[in-house]
Amino acid sequence: DSGVTQTPKHLITATGQRVTLRCSPRSGDLSVYWYQQSLDQGLQFLIQYYNGEERAKGNILERFSAQQFPDLHSELNLSSLELGDSALYFCASRGTSGVHGTDTQYFGPGTRLTVL
Amino acid sequence: SQQGEEDPQALSIQEGENATMNCSYKTSINNLQWYRQNSGRGLVHLILIRSNEREKHSGRLRVTLDTSKKSSSLLITASRAADTASYFCATDAAGGSYIPTFGRGTSLIVHP
User: Do A33 and A107 contact (CB within 8 A), yes or no?
Assistant: First the structure.
């Protein structure tokens, strides 16, 4: 158990809809990263937040947005969903303690999104 | 950011054999990490090697790093069926913000 939680585990929805994925980082971790994993694209970095502020953006579509709240949990909002958005969505928090110091990401179990 | 690329894409071996996976990257790094992912599950951190290190061990795992060739290898010795998973390398670019970028992974199947 990484200590990072994600809900829901599975989400099935229709094209054109909007969904919200939720992530809670490990206790004490300030950074949250969102990744999308699909069969043809591998693991793609979407966006990073640090202590409530957007820190970096990757290959995130304009239809997608995210935020990090004062309690450090994060939400990824996906709107106007398309078939191609079907994927596993992971969040990860960056370690602030332990053997590896601040260099390690801890991944949640993921949310599997299926768009029909 | 940059991307690690794993090779081979897929590897199939018998239990007890060693498995070697390689990772190549493009620019200078602070560190390189290897992760494991069981089918449909989250990534689990295996080992981190810093740019000033050449070799690191953790149990049955051995990682090497050659910064002159911009490559790393992960060796799993005496493999077990439970090692069946996908393995990813992630690089953290030197001088940049901490955004580990991942390759497409090596899919390892260990036959009992």
Answer: no
